[in-house]
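Notes to self after the call with IL:
- keep both proteins in one doc
- input above output, always
- annotate only the second one for now

Protein 1:
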Amino acid sequence: MQSGHSPHEKILQEALKAELRLVNTGLPKSQRKLSDLLKERHPQVSCNDGSVHSFKRSELEHLASITDASEQEALLLPILIEVGTDESGTTVVCEGPVEEKVVSRVLGMLLTCEHKRIRVYKPQLGVLRAKLKTTTVYVFSARITS
């Protein structure tokens, strides 16, 4: 086999991808700028399944208190917490320096972004979700490597 995957592995991978699509149906269709959400009376985003994901104002204000105006323009919410099926574990998707700053400040420790991801461990994840329950969402992914 050229790809190094047996037919059985390919079937399992396709099944896993299909299951992950189902698990992720409630995810927001898109992310929105913190600066825009702060201006709204009822800040929210639409989800793929037709539901609405609402943000707590107190969380938005906390994020605003630890970012400047340009960072509020750059910070997209909800912040994505990726739960992988491989050894990479749980990571925060980091599109730029603002996510790195926010996660570091919320957790009270310096964290670095590598390959657009910030690795977080179970105790850190608990703190992050406790402080940013509505401004973070889980994304389940299958980064299958050969």
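Protein 2 (the one to annotate):
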Amino acid sequence: MTEFKRILFVGVLLTGVFVVPGMLGGTRVMNQPKRLLFVCVENANRSQMAQAFARIHGGALVEAYSAGSRPRGQVNPRAVEFMKEVGYDLATHQSKSLDALPDVEFDVAVTMGCGDQCPLVRAKRRLDWDIPDPKNLPADQFRAVRDLIEGKVKALLEEL
């Protein structure tokens, strides 16, 4: 659970910082949430799931976004179904274009292995994850891709 506290840190009183006990195995103190962007072509499967996992596991420490170079217009109903299995309602998400993103510099921009480069997106760091598109995969393989994405998001959050 995220708490908002005043913290005495090396003799300096800090106000307005986030203290997150136990997040991924430790306590972290941050002034500003990290901005994470996940991009794939349709913004209907992989990037949507990555955004959801960043919100689940990053909480108040991250601002997670997703977008696509050629958005499909809706999130894949299968992605909604398989994310429901892990307790996240992806039905509240919308497929959106890169143009819909806020005009900010992202701390990390992650492409999902779909060939998108996103040259107009400002980011301090860029990653490309080679993740297969689960759109037409059988259910067990779709779940495996979902779980792979969760693992990669958790590892990314540990690095921040």
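Annotation: The chain has two domains: 1-31, 32-159. Confidence is low (pLDDT under 50) at residues 1-22.
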